[in-house]
């Protein structure tokens, strides 16, 4: 899935949080995480003591195209070093720790980081733990807050790339005003669609022309009977056709449909 | 990452949209998609002509724990059959098609489906295309709307499980977050209004019956020509009629309209 939007392109890299993978075990997972970052315009990858060493060919391969992120990744020995230059650090975790820290969802985390990043001197990062064991308490303790995604408690585990995907998605959504998201009412989306089809919405006059054409033929066919029911039947037909938000081109098509159904059989 | 929440548990399965994978190529991807469904409490998986056949051991393996979803999956030969019993179908797609349909984000799609599903007789499903080529235009034409995720246009491609993950995430978020849940889009309220008239939304099977009835008569009338233009003409007609969100009663009325236009002139 993708958006139509320039929104992605418009988006400056500056200020986006760094993704920090703590002791990732498999190169593949670093690569797919990088790929998820690229999906949502997150450019800065930091690695803390990747288990299988660095650089890692499998990471480049799994990034399938996002290798520019993998190759620009910076490697650190400890989490402390990896977050040293950052002002706000959030830690993704699968469970509440008994620590007094704010708990964010990916969505509220994106808002919090965005608010803090309004100050150009502020830099942010997000910690993601080891595939199996996640982040240790000492590592979480370094963070200003915790990010927990709403997930079915019976099936809470997300893989590394999926965790990065959800956090990146909410960040990107916020910075592309939700793209096709919350600010786009369904109707507007529909209308927008209308205009992309190189035509315009039908005028009421054109619509009524279609209605009367159909009704004329249906009277001809004795369909709109008995007379006392005619007004309601006409109303229902007009309601149906109105709901379709027909374009001017579509009105002409439908009139062609009616004419052809009738004409054919008049000939025959 | 996981939520603290009973919210997930509270959530009834009923009404959740079915996930429909159209000609998935690799069993692994069916399994990881099922896993993503489990993360967000989506239980119903439908498969259209899985390339490597079914059942598929690799799908079960890749589901790592979500095999109950894989094993309950229903397999269909065609998309038409897979959506026959559904009232609202949304199609995930990577690009805007030259079709006139509402375009949703995963977030607005969750709201739209939730509003429509307020009617207990309404059932929803989401189409996901083939790993490489996505959904064909004729498949998208069967849908009531399109879902496009806000993604960096330079890196738009999401794998199957990730696409399911984002759609499932927004669905789950809406249904485990009172604040979001309370907002009901105006447009959706209008739609609900449709079904208060002692009738229900048409099923796709009923709609397809109407489409085929009309197309039969138009072939009869030599309207759908030249042959090379027929597919596009059919698609446009189906899109127009789909947009009207017809009720079952309205579908019967329109079939009566077609029959009467034809019959009358056959008599004459």
From TrEMBL, chains A, B:
Keywords: Methyltransferase, S-adenosyl-L-methionine, Transferase. CDD domains: SpoU-like_TrmJ (cd18093). Coiled coil: none annotated. Residues 18-169 form the tRNA/rRNA methyltransferase SpoU type domain. Gene3D superfamilies: 1.10.8.590, 3.40.1280.10. One of its GO terms (biological process) is tRNA nucleoside ribose methylation. InterPro entries: Alpha/beta_knot_MTases (IPR029028), RNA_MeTrfase_TrmJ/LasT (IPR004384), SpoU_MeTrfase (IPR001537), tRNA_m1G_MTases_N (IPR029026). Pfam families: SpoU_methylase. One of its GO terms (cellular component) is cytosol. GO terms for molecular function: RNA binding; RNA methyltransferase activity. SUPFAM superfamilies: alpha/beta knot. Belongs to the class IV-like SAM-binding methyltransferase superfamily. RNA methyltransferase TrmH family. This is RNA methyltransferase.
């Amino acid at each position: 899935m993708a958006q139509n939007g320039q929104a992605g392109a418009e988006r400056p890299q500056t200020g986006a949080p760094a993704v920090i993978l703590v002791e990732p075990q498999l190169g593949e997972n670093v690569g797919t995480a990088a790929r998820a970052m690229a999906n949502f315009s997150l450019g800065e990858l930091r690695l803390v003591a990747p288990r299988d060493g660095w650089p890692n060919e499998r990471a480049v391969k799994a990034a399938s195209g996002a290798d520019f992120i993998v190759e620009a990744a910076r490697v650190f020995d400890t989490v402390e070093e990896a977050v040293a230059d950052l002002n706000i650090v959030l830690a993704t975790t699968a469970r509440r720790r008994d620590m007094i820290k704010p708990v964010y969802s990916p969505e509220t985390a994106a808002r919090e980081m965005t608010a803090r990043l309004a100050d150009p001197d502020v830099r942010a990062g997000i910690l993601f733990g080891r595939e199996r064991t996640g982040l240790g308490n000492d590592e979480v303790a370094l963070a200003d807050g915790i990010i927990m995604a709403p997930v079915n408690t019976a099936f809470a585990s997300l893989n590394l790339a999926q965790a990065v995907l959800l956090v990146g998605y909410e960040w990107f959504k916020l910075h592309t005003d939700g793209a096709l998201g919350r600010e786009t009412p369904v109707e507007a989306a529909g209308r927008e669609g209308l205009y992309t089809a190189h035509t315009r919405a039908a005028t009421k006059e054109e619509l009524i022309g279609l209605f009367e054409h159909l009704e004329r033929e249906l009277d001809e066919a004795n369909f709109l009977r008995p007379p006392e029911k005619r007004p309601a039947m006409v109303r229902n037909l007009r309601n149906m056709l109105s709901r379709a938000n027909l374009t001017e081109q579509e009105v002409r098509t439908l009139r062609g449909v009616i004419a052809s159904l009738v004409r054919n059989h008049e000939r025959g």
